Amino acid sequence: MYIILLGALTALGPFTIDLYLPAFPVLEADFQTSAAAIQLTLTGTMIGFALGQLVVGPLSDKVGRRVPLIVVTALHVLASAAAAFAPTLELLSVARVLMGAGAAAGGVVAAAIVRDLFGGRRLVVMLSRLALVSGVAPVVAPLIGSGLLAVMPWRGLFLVLALYGAVMLVCALIFLPETLPRARRQEKGSTTVLQRYRSVLGDRVFIGVLIIGGMTFSGLFSYLSASSFLFQQTYGFDAQQYGLLFAINSVGVVIGVQTASRLATRFGPQWVLAISTGVLVLAATTIIIGDLLGAGLWGVIIPLFVFMTACGFTFPCVQVLALDRHGKAAGTAQSLIGAVNFGVAGLVSPVVGWVAGEAGITPTTMATVMVGCSIIAVLSLWIVVRPKTVAQLAP
């Protein structure tokens, strides 16, 4: 029950961000605007999510895990209801920013609770379960969203998210205990927000994996933000076929996360990243080559599956390397991971639409951004993290 609740809390953020992706073409038509303008509502959500985590993380290290979670999740419920009834795109955008901020507590608090209770190789196992949720949820959410669109208008998706948030709020009130002892909130050297940020950001390895995580998420969300237009408008998918594509890709993420957790305990997460980040570059480059050679739909789908699988390998390794080193500031560390992942991805993902312009989104315009993000991740691993300097995990 406990791990299920933590997983559901972790999934709230990705579901808030991605559930409405299949409705992008409908929103574009309803509000009579451009694809880039609709993508900006996604950017706003992710920026709200990032900023919310920067507040919630250090706060959860200071006052405990429960109170920030309960207050911020209540904001999510109210903002989701406001989005459902927003009469204009501008008001919808504001509501989406608040929804992102309101969803911020779930993933931060869940990961911090796991770090409160576990360390070493056991931490790898537990974080891999949360990473499975955070990796699969972004690709499963559009599948569920496409199914919901078959029985309700796009506004109904936000009412579903309001209900989800309300259920999480009630469950947190009833079932979630406080895992951060009062004594640990006042430990020397970590009593203020500034001290916590200084201890975390002063770690070279943490900075390196922070960049890797942010670039991997940016590559993933470049695909997510462009995919609705690419597959539904360019390749003629309906909402259900589009959702099925996400379901297939989610299998790749599951394979990656589950395999990475085993390999990381044996060889070290830094060496798993050495392989997975390289595969990200190769898979994204293959999409461009396939498009230029006229390989068609399969030339996109197959390397895209490989890219998603490599993302699955990357996510848990980033979290383990970051959190295992900062048990005393787990909330702060996780908030920075989440803020960079979703904040940078929110800024990068609309680039696909801007690059495409009036010509429309193509596999090449989408994959070009994915390649750039992946190359930065590779450089960060070898120049900043430097795998040979990272110690093996404790038992």
First-to-last CA distance: 26 Å
Structural class: mainly alpha
Element-level helix/strand string: HHHHHHHHHHHHHHHH
On the 0-100 scale, what is the average pLDDT? 85
Gross morphology is globular
* Quaternary structure annotation: single chain
- Which residues sit in consecutive blocks of at least 5 with pLDDT less than 50? none
Largest sheet: none
Strand content: under 5%
**Helix segment tally:** 16
Rg, please?
Answer: 20 Å
Kindly state the number of beta strands.
0
What are its keywords?
395 residues; mainly alpha; 16 helices; 81% helix
What does this protein look like?
By secondary structure, the protein is mainly alpha-helical. About 80% of the residues lie in helices and about 0% in strands. The protein has helices at about 1-20, 25-30, 35-65, 65-85, 90-100, 105-115, 120-150, 155-175, 195-200, 205-235, 240-265, 270-290, 300-325, 330-350, 350-355, 365-385.
Draw up the topology in text.
Layout (H helix, E strand, L loop, with lengths): L1 H17 L5 H7 L4 H29 L2 H19 L4 H14 L1 H14 L2 H30 L4 H22 L17 H9 L2 H31 L4 H29 L1 H24 L5 H26 L6 H19 L2 H6 L6 H23 L10
Summarize the structure.
The chain is mainly α. It is built from 16 helices and no strands.
